[in-house]
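Run: sequence + zinc ion -> complex structure.
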Amino acid sequence: MQLLWARCPWCGYTGCDADFNDGAGLRVQTSPFRCLSCLATQVWPGDSLELDAEEARLGWYRPGRLNPRISSLNGTLLTDHQAQLLTRASLAPDAPFQVSLDEDESIRAFELID
Ligand SMILES: [Zn+2]
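>> structure
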């Protein structure tokens, strides 16, 4: 059985979440785990970012290193729920994406991640 929550190997936060699809009695993880405390994220098969020795050992990117597979807003990771809300409000394309906001909170740029 797959974990729904994971412990962050960098800071110890135990509420790291990921996206899952339920189907045919199977729960399939569809995104890397992300730590909303220190912003570390799990390495995902096929990722092209280079890992340092510690990242390779832990299987997680360092805190604050933006994982290109996870939606973000002004450089901060978004939860799946937040990303879905932005998408539903037609403020963002389908996740994952990166959003930059101006100081008045107007949207400066969307960058779709594939
Ligand atoms: Zn963490």
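>> summary
The pocket of zinc ion is lined by residues 8, 10-11, 13, 35, 37-38, 40, 63 (CB under 6 Å). The CA atoms of residues 1 and 24 lie 14 Å apart.
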